[in-house]
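Possible regression after last week's pipeline update?

I re-ran a chain I had predicted before the update to compare outputs. Posting the input and the new output here so someone can diff against the archived version. Not blocking, just want to make sure nothing changed silently.
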Amino acid sequence: MAIAIKSASVRGLLKLARVKFPTCNEKFHPLLISTRTTATKEAQPEETVDPLQVIAEKFVGKAELTENEKKLVVEIDRLNKEVGTLTEDKLELDDKYKRSLADRENVRQRLTKQIEEAKQFGIQGFCKDLIEVADVLDTATKSVPVSEVNEKNPHLKNLYEGLTMTNASLKQMFGRHKLEAVNPIDLKFDPNFHEALTQQEVKDKEAGMVVSVIKIGYKLHERCLRPALVCVSKSP
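New output (post-update):
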């Protein structure tokens, strides 16, 4: 039965033959054939036929291969399968490598975000204590009758001015650390920053509006630290 040898297989056979017989000259090589043509009157120089062409001509139309040729064909088939397996392994490893890089980048971004949040909200507990102090100062300053703050009551005047300055300094410190008061009077009720204690029917007010603030709230970097306690309008 005739066997057709493709160009790739022929090249593979040639390479393996040269590996197995590196020192064998062309005359005795099992796959390389030299032809010598002799002129009728004078000898011509030796010519070497293209090895690929010789091997192709040797196998085309041949019913059976020699033992060496069979071994070479088997070896080529094994190497082709091994190349296919290695190619699949390479693709699989490339995919795993890319996934690993993506996972590492996600972890890096997540850790960076957590570090930034830790920097921003690390003072959250301290701020909660400070806003209680701010509430006390606000209550103290509002409890002093403004009409009594004059030269006739120097002690009360000095005390009031001291409380006012302390309260103003505290509010400035809040601003530097992005701690802001939430006073939502006449604004739409927002459950993220407001807590409704009561509801009230109010004319000319649509439902869900804040009509009064019982206790102001605070937010730190747009995160609710303490919700504002409010009264909300309702439909009649």
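Follow-up from reviewer: compared with the archived run. Residues 1-8, 19-43, 49-54 have pLDDT under 50 and may be disordered. Marking as no regression found.
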